[in-house]
Amino acid sequence: MPTITAFERSPDRGRGLARDMRVRWAFEEVGQPYEVRLVSFQAMKGAPHRARNPFGQIPTYEDGDLTLFESGAIVLHIAERHAGLLPAGADARARAITWMFAALNTVEPPIFDRSLVNILEKDEPWFEKRLQALDKSIRTRLGDLSAHLGEAEWLDGGFSAADLLMVTVLRRLQGSGLLEEFPNIAAYVARGEARPAFKRAFDAQAAVFANAPLTG
Amino acid sequence: MPTITAFERSPDRGRGLARDMRVRWAFEEVGQPYEVRLVSFQAMKGAPHRARNPFGQIPTYEDGDLTLFESGAIVLHIAERHAGLLPAGADARARAITWMFAALNTVEPPIFDRSLVNILEKDEPWFEKRLQALDKSIRTRLGDLSAHLGEAEWLDGGFSAADLLMVTVLRRLQGSGLLEEFPNIAAYVARGEARPAFKRAFDAQAAVFANAPLTG
């Protein structure tokens, strides 16, 4: 059974924003049981965890002799080995992988920056202006995504690993008011969250936080 | 023959930083000829180009009925269809793909931000502090990468698509002084640049700028 790593005590307090959520969701979609090794912030930077991921981050993936990191790569690995997360045709499969990269490389960067700025730069004199600049970048991306999506249910045909990644990226905007400006995107995120596999994954990672020690 | 898109007039003035460089280099490594359709900044945001890439960016990839975007996805597509950019074994292949995602999702974001800040925020009162914060993030990533690389020639065994992406990401730091703080990384980038396929790709994209109209 593959083993992944996750935060012993997630900074998001169990809201499913940590990147192990993507891997848990993928396992749930394809029906693959998995084990979780929880790591503290201190342990993440130690040698045993760096042997799994040289950048000292979660999630990682271990299955026999194979160790992987990067949530996008792990989700792709799962999608290639099980039915349910990539379309059968070669062209449709390549397009789904294009959208996986788009989620992580084009849509996520300004959204992730926004989270960081809200944590690290809240008291800086430039905070409001930085936030406005990021919101402008995010609105541009969301506008493009909204135009592409139109009335479609998913990014390209049926649900795929690309939708899984894109929904996890967009969920980080919940509470910002930005998703509500694009109703078809808000509905798209809700469709992802309504999937039984999402719910099982969300509950599993939320349970870790609920059971976490108060210090760690 | 596949067709890619590239800037009609690249903002980097032909230094190989635009993301079509990655795709050109991949084609050169595997010996696949390709055609290039140049697009102006205005045309990139028009409907015909958005049909190729909803985010209005370059590069895109067209081959028969298949259209892709995202440089990482295109390089992976090329690597999967030709020998030379991914190892043969399944585990080694999965690890190479992990490093492709690491290049684009873990190493590139602060490096790309640094370029943007140097262009867009040079006159802002927070410029120096922003740059220092980014340089700290970049040094952390480079330190981790340097520790992983050690005396190895490439990231994981032989040269792969992961090295191709990582070298293009790191080249964006040339001139910052940061690469020189990690001599094994500087040597790694130089090894990538010394490959004949890199040089052919670099010359091809530089020729576009040399021949570009003065306005456009």
Per CATH, the architecture of the largest domain in chain A is Up-down Bundle
Pick out the low-confidence regions of chain A.
Answer: none
**Helix/strand class of chain A:** alpha+beta
Measured as a percent range, the helix fraction of chain A is 55-70%
CATH fold-level topology of the largest domain in chain A: Glutathione S-transferase Yfyf (Class Pi), Chain A, domain 2
Radius of gyration of chain A: 17 Å
Supply database-style keywords.
homodimer, 216 residues, alpha+beta, Glutaredoxin, Glutathione S-transferase Yfyf (Class Pi), Chain A, domain 2, 2 domains
Walk me through what this model shows.
2 copies of one chain form a homodimer. With 216 residues, the first copy, chain A, is of the alpha+beta class. Chain A has 9 helices and 4 strands, in the order βαβααββαααααα. Chain A has helices at 20-30, 41-44, 47-52, 71-81, 90-120, 127-149, 161-171, 183-193, 196-210; strands spanning 3-7, 35-39, 60-63, 66-69. Chain A starts with a strand and ends in a 6-residue tail after the last helix. Chain A has a 4-stranded mixed sheet. Chain A folds into 2 domains: 3-84 and 197-210, Glutaredoxin (3-Layer(aba) Sandwich); 90-195, Glutathione S-transferase Yfyf (Class Pi), Chain A, domain 2. At the A-B interface, β4, α4, α5 and α6 of A face β4, α4, α5 and α6 of B.
